[in-house]
Specification:
By secondary structure, the protein is an all-alpha fold. The protein contains ten helices and two strands. Strands 1-2 form a two-stranded antiparallel sheet. A hairpin with a 5-residue loop joins strand 1 and strand 2. The protein is globular.
């Protein structure tokens, strides 16, 4: 509102490309709270519940989730991904491949994943918790220069990705697939909230 603030915003936007999908700001006013479904699909509130656990995860919780993760969870997670890819309008070349840590398939469909950007946000949440509460051995750099989580954080992240898939896209995880994907969540955090009940998912 002041000349100084306007000059600061102008400086911040100097190098911004004209086609950038964002803008820089020095303050934001919250005008309206939108439904989590805008970001994470019809069961966005349930995805938010998983995100809350990811943001609050400590090392003991990571160990408990990691030890409770079902041995067949990677396969079940991949099955859910294959079911979603089969629903998408464009051919998905990665269908039928291993999807143990898949978070998005740009171009396969408008949402890029069964829960929008939920998987990517969850990865960031657990990485942040690992840095904050896991100590120097929580992550490392691999041979490609990429940051990777170390166990128990890595396997705990897998358990939360499983839960996010099961709660955020329940139509993809019927029967045994759903049972496998929710086993660690059930063992550590109690019963799975009804993905159709936003109050239960956030409660």
């Amino acid at each position: 509102m002041t000349d100084e603030e306007r000059a600061a915003v102008a400086r911040a936007a100097e190098n911004l490309r004209s086609d950038a999908g964002y803008t820089r700001a020095i303050s934001v006013d919250l005008l309206e709270e939108l439904s989590p479904s805008v970001l994470f699909g019809p069961h966005g509130a349930a995805v938010c519940r998983v995100l809350e656990v990811g943001y609050g995860l400590d090392e003991e919780g990571a160990r408990r989730l990691a030890s409770a993760r079902h041995p067949a969870a990677d396969r079940a997670y991949g099955t859910a991904w294959d079911r979603w890819l089969a629903e998408q309008p464009k051919d998905a070349p990665c269908q039928g491949e291993g999807h143990a840590r898949l978070m998005a398939v740009p171009g396969a469909g408008p949402s890029q994943s069964p829960i929008g950007h939920g998987f990517s946000v969850l990865v960031d949440a657990v990485r942040g918790s690992a840095r904050l509460r896991g100590g120097p051995d929580a992550d490392a750099t691999d041979e490609h220069g990429d940051e990777v989580l170390m166990d128990p954080w890595r396997t705990a992240l897998g358990a939360l990705l499983d839960a996010a898939m099961a709660l955020g896209a329940p139509h993809l995880v019927d029967g045994q697939v759903g049972t496998v994907l929710t086993s660690a969540w059930n063992a550590v955090l109690g019963s799975v909230p009804d993905p159709d009940d936003d109050a239960a998912a956030l409660g």
